[in-house]
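[User] Once you have settled down, look closely at the record that follows, and write a paragraph about the fold.
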Amino acid sequence: MRPEHRLVDGGAKQAARLKVGFVLSRCFTLSAFALFVDTLRLASDEQDRSGRVLADWQVIGSTRHLITSSCGVQVAPTSDFVDPSRFDYIVVVGGLLSVENPVDQQTIAFLRLADAKKVPLIGVCTGSFILAAAGLMKRHESCVSWLHYKEFRERFPDLSVRSDRLFNLDRQRGSCAGGSSAADMAALLVRKYISRDAERNALEVLQIEKARTTSDIQPRRPLYDDYDDARVKAAMITMEQFVDGSMPIEKLAAMVGLSRRQLERIFIEKTGMSPAKAYNRVRMERAKSILAQSKAPLIEIALDVGFENASQFTRTFKRTFGQTPSQHRAAVSRAH
């Protein structure tokens, strides 16, 4: 962090603004970019006036041509490539991994120049893939979505990567899984460079109750992703769609073209569990996620995952995870 942007202990604002340059890849993820930049916008001024009082940002590019996001919405760069040291951070917003050349060679050269000038680089969504391909993630750890973890390992087997956290700040590099975690990472920068009040203002307007931290866990990947049998996957996807337990095993088997006995045999072979036990696990994983991310009463969570009362839910949860729902929620709270 540059000293002119540090906060004093009382949280007093410094005169200089937090300056962020955004590099958008071809087919970038619009939501990740929008949440990151809007967090800066709302933190920069009061009462949603959009003034660039405490922060400033530019979308920078090798040309002023429109850049098309993965959803088809286009964004125009607001600045050519300038001296990267004008910015406190350069944020690379990635998108679809199927795009062969997400950025051009001029962009790669600009990012390497930023690295040479000690400007911190952040990869948002699959932006860490772009930084890694440019040779800019050596000796740094990348944080990617669990959806992209396997592909990152295949493309960059010598680099350190994790998919358990929402985002990561590792010295001169930052990376995040994308989606709503882009707002969490932006909120961290706002808190460090501007003030907690500015962070609170931004999150309140965005209707985000609380910013998550670098220790927060990514929502777990679906259980079905662990298995390669198409029938098992299809059955478990259906289980997640009927997480209240209302899907009978017989009907579940019929939906994937099997008898109940055939489905049970395949589940035991492929997962080591019966379909009923797998269904219970899916429901408990959903309950575990709700406990960690909300303050909903136990009875409400119990009903959501198909239990008639909180005591029955508590017994099943403890049998599954070795602790009661209340104990799990308290442990998550202490960790934060």
User: Anything to note?
Assistant: The two ends are 23 Å apart (CA to CA).
